[in-house]
Design goal:
Blueprint (H helix, E strand, L loop, with lengths): L11 H5 L6 H14 L9 H9 L4 H20 L3 H9 L6 H19 L24 H9 L6 H16 L3 H5 L8 E3 L2 E6 L8 E4 L6 H12 L8 E3 L5 E5 L2 H9 L3 E3 L2 E3 L3 H14 L4 H8 L4 H8 L4 H4 L17
Antiparallel strand pairs: 1-2, 2-3, 4-5, 6-7
Helix pairs in contact: 2-4, 3-4, 4-6, 5-6, 7-8, 8-10, 8-12, 12-13, 13-14
């Protein structure tokens, strides 16, 4: 009987996450157990978890997460002590042999279902082209309108303006913005003033030069001065009365802030997401002539292809065919 299985009646994390798991396995299983919350890990609904993940992740990423979870359940099923342990758990609630057997059989069936790929298959569609509506990249005018939307006459407006502007000027992720300390705002990279991301995605530390966008520091300084922030988290929540909360903003709070200021696009108000600001940063820098490799490093991407997807290099305006043929003479033909 494995050590992990002895904790079957305890928390999902203790039962599902092996002590010797690698970081990717640990991350995926930890995310799954967090989603389970108070629900039993013996009765997982991976179909529902798949749908939950698809709200935020690509199909390939969701498939990887589910594959890790299924593999863990398969390992548990292969353990010879699993059925004995389930009987021991059933014995804590009933003395009836048939009831105990029914509990164990049901638990085993649910575990087998969880390990069956057919129960939570992910439909993968190969996409060559994506419509503009899939990924929002703001024009310069739209970005400036968004930065101006909160106003700077109130403490909340000043904070929200600084949040949006800093994301547009550095391309940082919302989690990275939440983790910023005051000391991260002014670091140096090759003598250039830069923003420090102490631990980005993949546990990577990076520096993002401000360049000509260093005016953002004036705006952030105005926020920290007005809020009385001299150290610790740069961006913090506010109580209803306008007083400062002690802790850093949460990722959900940043998403709410950015989404609170819709942008007018082709006559419609469109809700913006934090990642749209990241794509906008990539596009605006590329249009201004910055090398995609430099943009990749600023964004913290491992792959240049990911950066090119953010930039949207293969947009329709750049794929519009030139005039490579002369049309035939139509004479008196009338087109209808």
């Amino acid at each position: 009987m494995t050590k992990a299985l002895t904790t079957i009646a305890e928390t999902p994390g203790a039962a599902l996450i092996p002590v010797d798991a690698d970081k990717h396995t640990r991350y995926r299983l930890k995310k799954f157990t967090a989603w389970l919350g108070g629900r039993s890990w013996l009765a997982p609904n991976l179909g529902a978890y798949r749908d939950h993940l698809l709200e935020d992740y690509a199909a390939s990423t969701v498939s990887a997460h589910l594959s890790t979870i299924r593999a863990r359940y398969q390992t548990i099923l292969r353990d010879n002590g699993t059925r004995d342990l389930l009987y021991a758990v059933a014995a804590t609630t009933t003395d009836d042999t048939l009831e105990k057997k029914a509990f164990v059989d049901e638990a085993i069936t649910r575990l087998e279902n969880a390990a069956d790929p057919a129960s939570s298959a992910v439909k993968t569609v190969t996409v060559q082209d994506r419509p503009d509506s899939d990924f929002l990249r703001l024009t310069r005018e739209q970005a400036e309108a968004l930065m101006g939307a909160p106003g700077t006459d109130t403490l909340k407006g000043l904070r929200d303006t600084a949040v949006i502007a800093l994301m547009l000027c550095t391309g940082i992720r919302e989690a990275e913005l939440c983790a910023l300390d005051v000391g991260d705002l002014r670091q140096r990279l090759g003598g250039e003033l830069a923003l420090q991301v102490r631990e980005g995605k993949g546990a990577k530390r990076r520096l993002i030069p401000y360049g000509s966008l260093s005016w953002i520091l004036v705006l952030v300084d105005a926020w920290t001065e007005a809020a009385g922030i001299t150290d610790g988290p740069v961006f913090r929540g506010l109580y209803k009365g306008g007083t400062l909360r002690p802790g850093a903003l949460s990722v959900r709070a940043v998403q709410y802030i950015v989404g609170s200021y819709p942008v007018a696009i082709e006559g419609e108000l469109v809700k913006v997401k934090p990642h749209d600001l990241r794509r906008t940063y990539a596009r605006r820098l590329y249009v201004s002539g910055l090398d995609p490799v430099a943009i990749r490093d600023n964004l913290g991407h491992s792959s240049l292809s990911t950066t090119l997807n953010y930039i949207g290099v293969l947009d329709a305006d750049q794929r519009r065919p030139p005039s490579v043929y002369n049309p035939p003479e139509l004479g008196q033909l009338r087109l209808t």
